[in-house]
Amino acid sequence: MSTWDYASVGFNGVQIGGDSAADSMVRPSDFDRRPKSKVRARLAKLSNQYFADIQIYLLENLEPEQTAGRLTGLVNKKFATGDYEGIQGPLWCLWGMINFIAFQIPHNHPYIVRLVDLLAAIKQLPPPQKLDDDDCLPWGAEGLWDQLPVFGPNMREDWNLHAHMVHEPVTEFGIQGWTSLNTFVARITAASPEPVFDFQLYAIWAMRDALEDTDEVYNLDAFIPAAATWIFYYGRGIFHNQTQWDYGDISPQGNPAAAGALYRTEGHETHASCGPAPPKGFSPQRWTFWKDRFKWAKDNEGLQGVTRKFAGDAYHEMEKIERTS
User: For 69-121, what is the HEC assignment?
Assistant: First the structure.
């Protein structure tokens, strides 16, 4: 199989054809063998309940709004009583469980879209009561569900964790999971009529890891499929994107969209129009560099066949976007 066809290939060698995808998923408790305090045990129980609710939503094709109401009940109860500190744990468990499930679903499986629909339905929920001016929600959020509070920090933590794990060591399970998580984030960003959440900076991070930072084969096999999915699901958005992240030289945030080593060297040699200034976001020059790197990867016989297939598909999709934009 060239791109892990969900109809016949599953994670960890489990066959997951069609609706049985949700049946083959592992629970978070299958991984966590740490001794549990009362608080950790309570959150673990909550995580397993969220897992079961989302699994039923996927298996039984429930309406997103129905499951959104069930998943948010505990947080709504705490919110209504003014226990704003107490909602952080359940929120972290909820978002983490959605990410955990997305990681296990093959990137081209329709369940990924169903998870995005579920997030969109949660975002549309009204708060159980109006916030007072002096009310303070976690992470500076100004609303409850309309801003998906804590979802951004939670995704950032999961992203960093899986980006580190995917190539230490390289496994098919890790590569597929990393590709699926990137697909999920790309589809969240590409949702219409507006993003469910703005993760466009993550597109640059995915491209930098796969195409700008290294020529070591194990890294390319680990990261190119994930980068390609950004082209599949958000490619036109990237092509037209001119967003820059310029926090100034003295900002502690630095340049989150900085280029990788290959772009800073080869990019300036092969694309003179890149100019002397380091990139701080999307640009036509960076798009061209990424496309050339995908083209190079699709013809590189030292890479795995699946990697080359993803690279080739991404390259041809970029060509198509250029022709039709």
Answer: HHHCHHHHHHHHCCCCHHHHHHHHHHHHHHHHHHHHCCCCCHHHHHHHHHHHH
SS3 170: strand
Q: Which residues contact 201 (CB under 8 A, 6 or more apart)?
A: 245, 256, 257
More confident residue, 235 or 45: 235
Average pLDDT across the chain, whole number: 83
pLDDT at 279: 81
Contact (Cβ atoms closer than 8 angstroms) between residue 183 and residue 231: no
Q: What are phi and psi of 167, to 5 degrees?
A: -120, 20
3-state secondary structure 178-243: HHHHHHHHHHHHHCCCCCCCCCHHHHHHHHHHHHHCCCCHHHHHHHHHHHHHHHHHHHHHHHCCCC
10 CB-near residues (< 8 Å, 6+ apart): 16, 21, 24, 106
d(CA 174, CA 294): 21
**pLDDT, tens digit, 9 for 90 and up, residues 228-254:** 999 999 999 999 999 998 776 655 567
pTM of the full structure: 0.86
End-to-end CA separation in angstroms for the chain = 32
The answer to whether the CB of 43 falls within 8 A of the CB of 93 is: yes
Who's near 29: CB < 8 A, 6+ residues apart? 44, 47, 48
* Residue 216 near residue 199 (C-beta atoms within 8 A): no
Cβ contact 189:199 at 8 Å: yes
Residues 6+ apart with CB under 8 A from 145: 72, 122, 123, 124, 125, 126, 127
Residue 162 and residue 184: Cα distance in Å, rounded?
14
CB 165 within 8 A of CB 174: yes
